[in-house]
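pasting DUF6310 domain-containing protein for the record, 304 residues
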Amino acid sequence: MRLRASAALLLFLSACATSAPSPAERASRNSRIANLQRAAALPWTDGGRCVVREASQSWPVLAERCYRALDHDRIEFHDTAGRCAVASVGAGAVGLGFCVLAAPEIAVGAVIVLGVVVVGVAIKEALDAYELRHAYPEEAGTSRGTKVASREADAQRKPKLKPEPAGQDWQPPVPPESPERERHPECRPVPVRHWGGNDPHNECADKIPNNSFPGWDVLVNGKNFDGLVLMTRTLWDVKTDDFERQTPRSQRFFVRMKLSELRREAKLARDCGYHFVIGVRSAAHKAVLFDADPTLKVVIMDWC
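structre below
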């Protein structure tokens, strides 16, 4: 009896010890996300890969290790605070830039970026992954091996979540205790593997501008969508068939056959508070879809 009681106590203590991160671990994650967000405002020649790799370090260490990955043709450094040695050429200029960049707080006007900054792909993926995981914490378990199944009859498979790099955390945009999410758990987006057998279609879907999960479909409300843009809450269905090569009669027939499913997808997305966009490859396809249903939003995909 004592042995059993001791074992139970040990299990209880072990669970308590691992149930929540320590203050030091939380501070480390917060620092990592602060570094990623700070770096997102700068232009990088490597898509931000160095930043993601070094994000757990202090900002000065990250700045030192990734300084050469900056797009120096688009960035200017000015010692507005007067804390860095004044230099204009050679090694001195590098030292000035690094000094300004590595400051705990960058002074106004100290770093000037020329042109519009597009967040580095690697940085964006890291932040998007954390946004999804912490906006919907119940899905975190699936990334560690829990199987997720679509409710559709034709989806007889058990997809897995995309593995996410550890420690890429920031403040969740939706409180974990949100009653809205509790009432509609089917609306939580879950990345799942692409359907196989149509690589050109999947590659086209992966290139959706600002796609939060390239390489994956997204399961929402029982339906696998081709893409999700989290920042605008937009779900995508991509059409890559050679529509424009068909006769006008065949084009109209094709659209009539697909229209009910497109309307269903639009409703599933709308019911969960998402926009819905259909991506097509030709103006002809867009025109016939518009004639069939002007309420559908159709975009010509010039990237595929």
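Confidence is low (pLDDT under 50) at residues 5-19, 86-93, 137-183.
The beta strands are 75-77, 111-113, 190-193, 216-220, 223-225, 227-229, 234-238, 275-280, 298-300.
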